[in-house]
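Need tokens for this chain, all 163 residues.
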Amino acid sequence: MIGIFLLLHVSCKDWRLTTLSFLALPSALVGGVLAAYLGDGIISLGALVGFLAVLGIAARNGIMMIEHFQHLEDHEGETFGPGLVLRGARERISPIMMTALTTALALAPLVIAGNIPGHEIEHPMAVVIAGGLITSTLLNLFIIPSLYLRFAKGWKRAVTATA
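Here are the structure tokens for all 163 residues:
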């Protein structure tokens, strides 16, 4: 957990944004937990691997979103505010949706086939990832931008003051 937090900090370059990204990650797992509960109701080794995959996807998409907001402010002259966040979210919706949809399509046969012999590990993993993709995508498209708007004000001043 400490390693993940430090890697997020290297990407975000601000403790507030790092904490925002880090605390949003468990929320992305809610869909995986619900999917596992509604499926077999058993958390197996495959399901645990699925949770790790969902964490990775959520972290990557969150980092992409925050870095894009920072890029718009630093390099494209966008002023901090709702316009910046709306533009950034609108420009990142395609990569986030493509990640979620391609992963879901790749896992669809494993989810549909069910827990048949030979799929004891893949099926729970696919179910958890598919459920986690839903909440992870919603989190990154709606929650992260609004939290960024609330907590990122003045991030540039804090970074330049500590540098």
